[in-house]
Amino acid sequence: METTWMCILLTMALTVALITDYSTHRIPNWLTLGLLVAAVIAQGLADQWSGLLSALAGACVGLLCFLPLHIFGAMGAGDVKLMGAVGAVLGPQPALIAVLATLVFGGVIALVFIGLKGGLGQMARRYARMATLVAQRQPAYLAPASAEPAAQRIPYALAIASGALFALWSLA
Fold first, then answer.
1. Dist CA 92 CA 76 (whole Å)
2. What sections of the protein cross the membrane (predicted)?
3. pTM of the complete model
4. 17, 54, 128, 159: least buried by Cβ within 10 Å?
5. What is the pLDDT of residues 57-79, one digit of tens each?
6. Is residue 106 one of the residues assigned to a domain?
7. How many CB atoms sit inside 10 A of residue 115's CB?
8. What is the DSSP string of 24-67?
């Protein structure tokens, strides 16, 4: 991805995703599909077959890295599709950087959200209990109670936008 207008388009799409995810906890299909199609077309026009393959490989990186998180209920489908579209814009190697950065940013953002709601103590006790179970050779995941702040969904588009912008910055 070399063109400035694709960076602008990506930033605009991520801004819309942030706003809609924060206000409705959904990322619209028209946004993710539109960004994906625009990226594939732009990459294909810029670099012919290699650009087309780069966009498709980047989309696969984003989708395949986040799909397991959706399957296990840790992430919404819109987040997975947004990461796929971001991958199409960036290409495969920068998409992997964006995925890894997104996971780091997502963890930090989740801790901030949980902390702001006063749930860090509950979360620490739950993880200490899980560590005890591991030490007793009885590993188990203890899900947070539904009223616990750690059980609340966060708008993950913020983490995706942060990871994507980090990947763009690291390429510069």
1. 22
2. 27-46, 53-75, 95-116
3. 0.89
4. 128
5. 999 999 999 999 999 888 999 99
6. yes
7. 13
8. HS---HHHHHHHHHHHHHHHHHHHHHHHHHHHHHHHHHHHHHHH
